[in-house]
Amino acid sequence: MSMNRRTLTASLAAATLAGLLPATVLAQKKLVLGFAQVGAESEWRTANTESIKSAAKDAGIDLKFSDAQQKQENQIKAIRSYIAQKVDVIAFSPVVESGWETVLREAKAAKIPVVLTDRAVNTKDDTLYVTFMGSDFVEEGRKAGRWLVDKMKDQKGDVNIVELQGTVGSAPAIDRKKGFEEIVKADPKFKIIRSQTGDFTRAKGKEVMEAFLKAEGKKINVLFAHNDDMAIGAIQAIEEAGLKPAKDITIISIDGVKGAFEAMIAGKLNVSVECSPLLGPQLMSAVKDIKAGKSLPKRIVTVEGIFPMEVAAKELPSRKY
Ligand code: GYE
């Protein structure tokens, strides 16, 4: 604490003792939030980080932020350091679903409330966190599937689909796959002929799509990518293979980031299912509510839409990420 603040605090304390100020003035210490982010793997993640940082600033919350570079061990380290620092609340976006029980129990033992944002953990003990706020990824997968079923309703022969999965073991990869399969399996003409992870990045999306094209060539009718970045990487691979994205291969992805809208406007991506990264303001109000002793619902679901290429130009100016 600087000399000035110390002097100020001392005079405020004196004023309080003298009955000149209410004691609450002294109690207004900034809340400290420790946030363990997944990484910086995608446009979505960058927008999510930005949302959290700016919302913390606006809410007057002292944010301690760490980037785990998509590694669970780094996230666990960060959470342990927040426990050691005795922050008021810990929030994190679990890179994968499993393996969190030990560290969550440590936070609980230290009486530090935990908020899950964006991705879920699979634990049976839901006393290990206060609330989980984020999208319904199964529903996003279903939306992608329903769009495809409708688009191909008059198609007679097989529809061969390749799938670029998100990070192995992550909630969005598991759930988007599940929701999509649930819808397309209703008609046997839909065949998922290849499915592999592209780790939610452009570079990996491109690399894996190159391998798909090498193996299957013109047999591929549809690409379902679990996020926009992998789809954008794959578009490059498709063009380099001399094919036309969104025409020779129908492309569906998820997130609805600006890059996807630009690709749709350029006629290279057919549709993007929205997944909002703007969780910052909601997280900050949850932090304040928790500290004020209010109870929160266990699950706070983000409301989202779907954007086909036909509406992209009209929608882009109002997109916030
Ligand atoms: O779809 C992807 C990001 O967890 C919803 O993570 C998030 C996903 C998002 O890397 O682009």
UniProtKB/TrEMBL annotation:
Keywords, ordered alphabetically: Signal
The protein's location, in the record's own words, is: Cell envelope
User: What sequence ranges are listed for the domain Periplasmic binding protein?
Assistant: 38-294
Q: Mind listing the GO molecular function terms for this protein?
A: carbohydrate binding
Q: Which residues form a coiled coil?
A: none
Signal listed as a keyword: yes
- Establish whether keyword ATP-binding is in the entry: no
InterPro entries referenced in this protein's UniProt entry, alphabetically: Peripla_BP_I, SBP_2_dom
| Matches recorded under Pfam families | Peripla_BP_4
GO CC annotation terms, alphabetical: cell envelope
Q: What range does the record give for the signal peptide?
A: 1-27
The record's similarity note reads: Belongs to the bacterial solute-binding protein 2 family.
PANTHER family noted in UniProt? D-ALLOSE-BINDING PERIPLASMIC PROTEIN-RELATED, GALACTOFURANOSE-BINDING PROTEIN YTFQ
The protein, known as: ABC transporter substrate-binding protein
> What is the protein's species of origin?
Variovorax guangxiensis
The root-end lineage is:
Bacteria, Pseudomonadati, Pseudomonadota, Betaproteobacteria, Burkholderiales
